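Quick start: read one record
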Amino acid sequence: MQDAFSINLLIQISYYLAAFLFIMGLKRMSSPVTAASGIKWAGVGMLVATLITFAYPDMNNYVLMTTAIFIGGVLAWWTGKRVGMTDMPQMIALYNGMGGGAAAAISAVELLGGGEHSLIFMVLAVLGGFIGSVSFSGSMIAFGKLQGLIRKDFRFQGQNFVNIAILAVIAWLGFSISGGHADTNTIALFFGLTLILGITMTLPIGGADMPVVISLYNAMTGLAVAFEGFVLDNAAMIIAGTVVGSAGSLLTQLMAKAMNRSLANVLFSGFGGESEGGSSEVSGSMKAIEATDVGVMMAFAQKVIIIPGYGMAVAQAQHKVWELTQLLIDRGVDVKFAIHPVAGRMPGHMNVLLAEAGVPYDLIYDLEEINADFESTDVALIIGANDVVNPIARTDPASPIFGMPILNADKSHNCIVVKRGQGAGFSGIENALFFLDNTRMLYGDGQAIAAELITAVKEM
């Protein structure tokens, strides 16, 4: 009896230690300087929580647990080593979906296990299963869109009413299951419909809105894990899930605010696809410029602001851009990087790319910190960004992005846009910035263009 008490005490202490490490890891991830160590802290917490689980007195499936951990660990290590920075959003969507799926699987096992349970137990198991299933299937669709496996946004008249109808049936089934009046078929139908709801909710959402969707599903996964932590009476799951859920919810709200859109608008408006476009007609023409001329312009500038976007990630140009930056700094040019909250395909995507290239954190500025500097900037160099610098967001109430805070690149003395071609961006909205008198288009692959700019600056 004493041994059982001691083991249980050790398990609970270990879970609280793991939860502490999770929280401290997340705290350290809030700063680029300490983010790498924060990931390690959280990893140690996960290791502690995993190993102590083997100490449960009534545990008897060690072979299955060890096999699952080994297979999952090998796959995670292999994919983590192989995935490129441009594919990081897809990997996050995939892994996040796995977390939601795991929570749903726990719920299914508990509900199908039978036995007498309290109403609270049943309600939390049902809620965890519902949220986890929606997060799983929705994240898989988000992965498919970002990976290019799903290239169309499937929309039809009345699709929101269909989703509401599915949700109503799910709610009815959930009430039935929570009351203990459900058989295996009812539980299977409940999970089947929740998986379908995740698919039907996510399919109509355009790729340009995927960063917000990924953040939302991340929050949902955390909430599902917290609910299942209550079901299993596991303190580590409760705390970790709550932290992830609250952090994900806050991030989702901040991203929606950065786009000047409500979360409901992101989820149900159907905007964000490549076929969407603004209502404005942009007049004028795009004016091309050569890399040698841009190199001269930047070499003799006093202040340069570089605005990276997903195009830089695709071109893997961040290392060349940093090399160019170093050359300009050596010439006495004041160079800064401006990051929009929704630049790229996931939160912090551009920050991670620049950190990978070795760009010092004190050269990287958020929208609020740097927007006032553009009016005194000689050259704003835009590499692969589109909607986040579109002045239509300030001027055209009919535009889908009207009211979205943007980087004021158009207010700089000279605006250089590095772009592969003349097409619209990922959301399909024509960018009025490209047609302004102070804007010149530098066509070509981002990495190749950066190399040409480096050569031009060196020849000065």
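DSSP finds 17 helices and six strands in the chain.
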